[in-house]
Amino acid sequence: MPLRVIEIVTPRSDKDQVVHSLEEHQTDQGYVYWASPLEDEEALSFRIILDVQESENVMDKLENLFAWTDQYRIVVYPAEATIPRLDQLSKEKDEKSNETKESEDKKQNRISREELYTDILDTTVLSKNYVMLVIFSSLVAIIGLLRDNVAIIIGAMVLAPLLGPNVGLSLATTLGDSKLAKESLKTLTVGITLCFLLALLTGLVLGNTSPTEELMTRSNTTFSDIILAIVSGGAGIISFTLGVPTSLVGVMVALALLPPLTASGLFLGAGMLGEAGGAAMLFTTNIICLNLAGVVTFLLQGIRPLSWGDKERAKAATVRAAVIWTALLAALIGLMIYEKHR
User: What residue intervals traverse the membrane (predicted)?
Assistant: First the structure.
């Protein structure tokens, strides 16, 4: 299990309160801690080393303990290893105290809510680098589709600039975070618009050329595409919550957002309206399934706000989003059935 170090900076006057809280829950969470004075001699730095699955419980307790001002700060960073191991330390403490106490907190087999938020926020911020990534990945997808080269198309899939904002939107819905939702929507809109316009311009310049097999593959949507998008979306969310970015490469390839969007622009620019609509439907299906799977998976992973008021607001936002995404998916399935029998 990965390890985390939680560093807490507090005024020296709060030392006894912090020590009491840490010792009270030390047996439950199985962590070790120590304190160090800072240079100004008016503050202390407490460092806790623990399993990542315990980090959210500990951070929630600390957040409830303090009235957060500039005097307080919590920083979380990874640790490679600790000697002796934490499980050995926990056993030693149990043997000394001769007590067995069942933890009141459910262990989360994932990174903490705050760590997850920071990781996803990095992928949703609209910046010059993000715009450049969208342009480059769109050009890679265009070249791959026009050359009928699967390897080049996979390169565009791996870059996946549209995945992060969609995951951010799902997390924002689950947490009821309107600021993150607005940032994710803004970034996603810019990314979609840039990619589509580049593909459309390319289609207009090249005209109605003979479409490649890879282009035609993305001009229709099947029920297996819906299942693949939902499963891949759920797997992507789990990869984020486990803090395992290497697992996302497979998800990026399986849940391809960029190629169908690029194909739609190329088809439209070439005047192939039917194929453009089919590719747009595949892209829309992937977006809907990703967000629906994201909201559900975040809920199953126990991602919730801390305070009661935030929980109520998040619950309302989650229900509303789930209804909207489900309704859109049902409408798409109905359209697919209609097109099939027409």
Answer: 130-146, 152-175, 187-206, 226-244, 251-273, 279-300, 321-338
